[in-house]
């Protein structure tokens, strides 16, 4: 019945909107920790959610850093499979280095195909980007039709103006667009997530930007037909001067090359690997040390040449340093099973339910959902489409309370029917003599057959 209604309704919606292709705007506010939503006032975001859907926790991928997780959102792949395994990388074969300020070599990105490239291979569709890691790189010889070179000094207003202009009047139409903003990550690092006063101020600003976004889309008449996803790459943990692990106390810097430092250090030994490993292993009780082949399976972080022979993983809130390195009050990159590392996801638009709350999905599940909304065939990926079915109006989904309700309802109907039958039988059989005998006859029937 419900299925029928949904089918009829979606048929109606499609008929009414003609054959306009679906459009999707993907927004990331970097470092937006899931529980900021519970702990701070965010009226504009809450309004957005009231008319749309909310996923309270998005389990992201290890390592919980910016470039790797942004690439997982748009490819549906674990880091070992999409190849962006850190913000700082080294490839031993080609001797190439990658960093967030030296990221334009397609070599690093070409192990996967991001959704904006796939979208443009469809006839009459283009993609646009007001920043997002990788959108200013020619991946598989393709950039978005409209994009900006990354620059943190371009204001949110300019990013918003340009992306909405591209969404409003380009031909072929822009059907997939991204918008990226550096906060609340930058302030989370600076003050730490537990600095309520500063974080309240910063999150109020971020919420104001969400208000501007919605207002702008309404003003241009884009709000009703556009699907908008607001999400993030990771959360933030509180760090402290008292929780540092100084590698220099344990091993000489001359015995290894450090590719990445904290909270997950990537170590390329210059001398015997076992010797380096043994010295680091006993360095600090709050630091896990893994040979590459022993990295836990649950991290899906092993099968790639860009993952170094030894990795060091600090416990939540701990920082790995060398004597000289500086320190932050907030950081991320830790174990992706930690709640503090998780972002959230909110979405609004014709593809999504209104006023639906969901507890959790994986960050790699976002990609198959976006492909579904845009009508694209997804590349092989590590996401599961069914995890997001409850968010979508054109899908049939049973959640646990609903399922229990259906089972209880069915049991009640069955019980009532049984009672009715018994009552009827009693009524029919009561006046008849030898009814006991009759019943015994009935019982024998199956045996005779
Ligand atoms: C692409 O767009 C052009 C002009 O808007 C139109 O004539 C053509 O039929 C479209 N092609 C497809 C496959 O939709
Ligand atoms: C935004 O669009 C304006 C007007 O077309 C253009 O002058 C400006 O360079 C664009 N900004 C960026 C960062 O691309
Ligand atoms: C981005 O930067 C490159 C190199 O500096 C330049 O050639 C290109 O025109 C820029 N693209 C845009 C869209 O600004
Ligand atoms: C948006 O597109 C509509 C229809 O093509 C046009 O009338 C309007 O001027 C555009 N607005 C902006 C701000 O470009
Ligand atoms: C590395 O050191 C270990 C233990 O000291 C030793 O058994 C092993 O043979 C060494 N390997 C190489 C390649 O030198
Ligand atoms: C780091 O600190 C240790 C212990 O205080 C000291 O022995 C070492 O020389 C220092 N290394 C550097 C590079 O400053
Ligand atoms: C993730 O997906 C890729 C592409 O399909 C596949 O090669 C890889 O084995 C998957 N990883 C896991 C852990 O299933
Ligand atoms: Zn980030």
From TrEMBL:
It is found in: Cell membrane. GO terms for biological process: blood coagulation; positive regulation of blood coagulation; purine ribonucleoside catabolic process. GO terms for molecular function: bis(5'-adenosyl)-triphosphatase activity; metal ion binding. Residues 1-18 form the signal peptide. Its EC number is 3.6.1.29. The chain crosses the membrane at residues 403-423. Keywords: Blood coagulation, Cell membrane, Disulfide bond, Glycoprotein, Hemostasis, Hydrolase, Membrane, Metal-binding, Signal, Transmembrane, Transmembrane helix, Zinc. It holds the Pfam family Phosphodiest. Its cofactor is Zn(2+). GO terms for cellular component: plasma membrane. Its main location: membrane. The keyword Ligase does not apply. It is a single-pass type I membrane protein. InterPro entries: Alkaline_phosphatase_core_sf, Phosphodiest/P_Trfase. It catalyses: P(1),P(3)-bis(5'-adenosyl) triphosphate + H2O = AMP + ADP + 2 H(+). Hydrolyzes extracellular Ap3A into AMP and ADP, and Ap4A into AMP and ATP. Ap3A and Ap4A are diadenosine polyphosphates thought to induce proliferation of vascular smooth muscle cells. Acts as a procoagulant, mediating platelet aggregation at the site of nascent thrombus via release of ADP from Ap3A and activation of ADP receptors. PANTHER family: BIS(5'-ADENOSYL)-TRIPHOSPHATASE ENPP4 (PTHR10151:SF79), ECTONUCLEOTIDE PYROPHOSPHATASE/PHOSPHODIESTERASE (PTHR10151). This is Bis(5'-adenosyl)-triphosphatase ENPP4. It comes from Otolemur garnettii (Small-eared galago). The gene is ENPP4.
